């Protein structure tokens, strides 16, 4: 197939490599000339995926028309804050038969939309599917066995996109629970920030296991209130992605949390991590959704207080421990 990958950060580049290795014709688009030159000249994403060769077959471009026209599938891989502006930029070149695959994990501030909803808002005539699950770019780019899930309301589209991405090292499940898959993928980032903070404070495995388990309870409570199936949160885009993001050395959200737990400010932590830390952008939207759907999300509330209101991480953990007694 002819495929355009829109966004050449870690994830877009890793997926472009996977798709090219699967035999597809891949064009990788970036908005930035310097990034395109680095990818083209070095055939490597020097900053984000050092040591991973970009196959010669992948075309690199900054031209939207070249990345979009004639492609059967477009993979949207820019960070969630840029998904709307990028979809708008591409819109004049997009035809209604092209399948759009969103791989960003986040919520839009203000509208509180998931990324599928954002893309659908800009391009209402296109089919939009979502790819999510435990899949760090650093490992996918090196062909390390990985499983993800693709969600759409249309069975046929799921089956088509599964075939496109599946390989001996990349197993793709299908799902019809779009909202469940997207809420799992975006909210685990906020819980991973909390897990990182706990590690940064020097707390132990017990603390992190508690944050992950009770964090999952928060994610599924909100997801179900928004129409998701509870079982989805036991899957790859639920507990699977929560496990990898809260425990992996590759996780930007966890690393950002660790730095904050060690005493860095949010700005210092973001500057140190350098790559996108989606949980920071989704945290506020998650809390607003919790209020809108009248769902209790105490961990996500404390993450917001630490990130945006100067609360000390140690005090946040203390306040979580001191809440009224509950039944599990
Ligand atoms: N890195 C990973 O392992 C995974 C990332 N994701 C998700 O994929 C999305 C992208 O993340 P990464 O590739 O890791 O980010 P990254 O931090 O590696 O790259 C960000 C890229 O965004 C692009 N960008 C920056 N400003 C832009 C703008 N104004 N307009 C258009 N593009 C712009 C640049 O090309 C930059 O390379 C995020 O939502 C992330 O949660 C999902 C699964 C795995
Ligand atoms: O979504 C991811 C892995 O599945 C990436 O997580 P981080 O953004 O925390 O690195």
Automatic annotation (TrEMBL):
One Pfam family named in its UniProt record: NAD_Gly3P_dh_N
Pathway linked to the protein: Membrane lipid metabolism; glycerophospholipid metabolism
Annotated residues for binding of sn-glycerol 3-phosphate: 105, 133, 135, 188, 241, 251-253
Binding-site residues for NADPH, renumbered to this chain: 10-11, 31, 105, 137, 252, 276, 278
Gene3D superfamilies per the UniProt record, alphabetical: N-(1-d-carboxylethyl)-l-norvaline Dehydrogenase, domain 2, NAD(P)-binding Rossmann-like Domain
Function (record text): Catalyzes the reduction of the glycolytic intermediate dihydroxyacetone phosphate (DHAP) to sn-glycerol 3-phosphate (G3P), the key precursor for phospholipid synthesis.
PANTHER family, A to Z: GLYCEROL-3-PHOSPHATE DEHYDROGENASE, GLYCEROL-3-PHOSPHATE DEHYDROGENASE [NAD(+)] 2, CHLOROPLASTIC
Stated name of the protein: Glycerol-3-phosphate dehydrogenase [NAD(P)+]
């Amino acid at each position: 197939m002819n495929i355009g990958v829109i966004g050449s950060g870690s994830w877009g580049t890793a997926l472009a490599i996977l798709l090219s290795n699967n035999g597809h014709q891949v064009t990788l688009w970036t908005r930035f000339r310097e990034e395109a030159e680095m990818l083209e000249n070095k055939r490597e994403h020097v900053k984000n995926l050092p040591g991973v060769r970009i196959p010669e077959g992948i075309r690199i471009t900054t031209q939207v028309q070249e990345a979009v026209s004639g492609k059967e599938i477009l993979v949207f891989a820019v960070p969630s804050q840029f998904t709307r502006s990028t979809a708008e930029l591409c819109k004049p070149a997009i035809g209604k038969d092209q399948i759009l695959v969103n791989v960003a994990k986040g919520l839009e501030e203000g509208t509180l939309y998931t990324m599928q909803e954002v893309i659908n808002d800009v391009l209402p005539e296109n089919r939009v599917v979502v790819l999510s699950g435990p899949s760090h770019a650093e490992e996918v780019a090196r062909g390390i066995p990985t499983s993800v899930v693709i969600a759409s309301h249309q069975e046929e589209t799921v089956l088509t996109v599964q075939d496109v991405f599946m390989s001996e090292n990349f197993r793709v499940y299908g799902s019809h629970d779009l909202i469940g898959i997207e809420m799992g993928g975006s909210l685990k980032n906020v819980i991973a920030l909390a897990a990182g903070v706990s590690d940064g404070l020097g707390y132990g495995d017990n603390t992190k296991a508690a944050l992950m388990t009770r964090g999952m309870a928060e994610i599924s409570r909100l997801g179900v209130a928004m129409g998701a199936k509870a079982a989805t949160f036991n899957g790859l885009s639920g507990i699977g992605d929560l496990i990898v993001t809260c425990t992996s050395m590759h996780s930007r959200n966890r690393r950002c949390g660790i730095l904050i737990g060690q005493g860095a400010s949010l700005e210092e932590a973001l500057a140190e991590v350098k790559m996108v830390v989606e949980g920071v952008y989704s945290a506020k939207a998650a809390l607003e959704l919790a209020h809108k759907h009248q769902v209790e999300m105490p961990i996500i509330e404390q993450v917001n207080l630490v990130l945006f209101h100067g609360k000390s991480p140690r005090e946040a953990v203390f306040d979580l421990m001191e809440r009224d007694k509950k039944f599990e």
